[in-house]
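name: query_chain
kind: protein
chains: 1
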Amino acid sequence: MRLKKGAEKFMFSLNKINVFSLKKYFLEILILINLLIQFLTGFLMLFYYIPSMERGYESTIFIIRDAPLGYYFFHIHLWGAIFILILIILLIFKSIFYKLYHKPKEILWIFTLILFLFFSFQYFTGILLPMENNFYWQVERIMEILKEIPILNSIYSFIFGNFTINKFVHIRFYIFHSFLIPIFILIFLFLIFSNFEKEKISPFYLNRIFILFLVFLGILLTLSILSPFKISEIYDPFKTPTKIYLPFFLLPIYFLKIYLPKKIFGFLFLILNFLIFILPWIDKREPVPIYKKKISFSVFSLFLILIFLTGIFGFFKL
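structure:
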């Protein structure tokens, strides 16, 4: 009887809490769940990882082969990093598709784009840490892209010194990936969620969140078992792999880098990114979802097809 009354009292107190709608903010909540998994797996691997170019590969192999559940933590962490980028890109396209960047949500648009930059930077700094040859050359290719982009190349040089991978760059990547970037990500996530509308909690809200967490963790675990990442040999600056796999969102950019002159590529990249950031102030039309306007929907569809095709061509050019 006391247990029943306690449960009823607890559910009554939950009904007074305002929370974020699971249906309305599904992608944002998935990002939060994924980030929690990333923090947990990353934190546990920190106990075994040795932040040096010489011992980084050794400690990664130890995590995968010998550390308790290390194999699963490593692959879940890597798959989670890819999924979190997919989710934030979907969130950006959702904002464009439904025109959610219009007044008074301009600041949310800016925060979301900055969050995407931080997640991309988190991925970039993280893949160097295992000091495995394929990951090493991924970083080299990303650096080649960064070199050609004005302002970004200056920021990178200011933070990391140069575009050569050495022990100083490696330790800075480790510090940024493990400590600094997660702090900035949490700050911007807080700023984004603090601007969301809230509603009365459902009695089953926490159950749904927990089930969503278990389902997402199950997906990452299944991918880790069925499609683990190939860890071959320690990095070798003089041995380029036969195939270098860039992250999917960089493939269209890599394609443009190959076929456009250096100065035009860098200038075009800056202009496009600047236009994306100021989109709420450029697009003054009525905030009607794109699918309700044929011309806008056609342009948006063509844009997605172009990104997809340049991504495929970029992949085959690696």
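note: The chain has one domain: 2-317.
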